Amino acid sequence: MRLLIKASGVPQDRIHYFDLDSRKYRKIKTPDDLEGLLDSIEETGEIQYLFIDEIQNVKDFEEVINAFRVDGHYSIFITGSNSYLLSGELATKLTGRYIEFEMFPLTFDEYLDIKKFYKKEINPNLIIELNNYLLEGGFPKAIQYETLADKRTYVKSVINEIFEKDIRKHNKIGNTKTFFSTLNFIINNFGCTYSIRSLQDALEKSGISIERKTLNRYVDLLVDSKILYRCDRFDMKSKKSISGEKKYYIADTSIYFSTNTDNRINYGPALENTVYLYAKSLDYSVSIGRIGKLECDFILRDNELGYSYVQVAYTINESRQTEDKEYASLEKIKDNYPKYVVTTDYILQKRNGIHHVNIMEFMKEHQKF
After folding, report:
1. Residue 309 and residue 340 in contact, taking contact as beta carbons nearer than 8 Å
2. From CA 27, how far away is CA 320, in angstroms rounded?
3. What is the model's pTM?
4. What is the pLDDT of residues 326-349, one digit of tens each?
């Protein structure tokens, strides 16, 4: 929000920033409190820009925001708890009256950009930087810490804060231990396909007993709080979503590495997770395609209803068999939308009109699918 203010070019006397978590404004709790605060802004006849952080601290703030919006002399920006702003309550009370901008952790290209901004050393070997990105993650503040241990401590604190502010504060969690056991299980198996039933079975095999209704609620809370992303599966033959089957990706790969002592990278799910978040940050709708017994890692749809298909692998240059496996599902798709095989390879194949791209160079150059 502060970066947006700094980049806006609007004169400072027309910008008004209120952090409702700060000591100065911590007593602003009711609609009348908020209205009194905003009424203190001097009207000049020009549009005033209101930036209100942690808006969910004010109960029933929507009626006040609506009133100032209708006035016409205000441009209003609000941020707040994921579990509230994304729970559907805001959409109900402000339907058609707001534009939502979803913020993601840094993508690989942004990670390189912010390292450059902070004058951090960037290795010319981009595969090393990709490894660093997967381990350190894309939370901007983490880049300011020097050691991997400090970065991971910071990421753990982010997860704990999300739990306290976005989940437990607004939702009753009966068994915290079971909740975190569920969270850790899904994080440790990110990129896997589950229905709620199969996830319950897998948890029970690992010694975690949980009712299906409770599990479904916990997963919804983790998705609403943006720790997890849920990706639907789509049968390309029947043109229908596959009921129940979904993949779960994590908001940032550092979440996995900060909760595990293992530094070995399982490139399959890690690269899938990276491409998924990169596509989401470009505002693609993302699903997973099934073509008979084969799977297309991602079907992307843009805002103009254009499609593209993406397969992700660490390399296809090890053998012809590996190459054939990654191309097989794309070659079965008979429409003329773009198709991509995304790998870390620098030696690129040309095969049946399918684009083979290097993941680091593709993202570094901010390219779209």
Report:
1. yes
2. 66
3. 0.86
4. 999 999 998 889 999 999 999 999
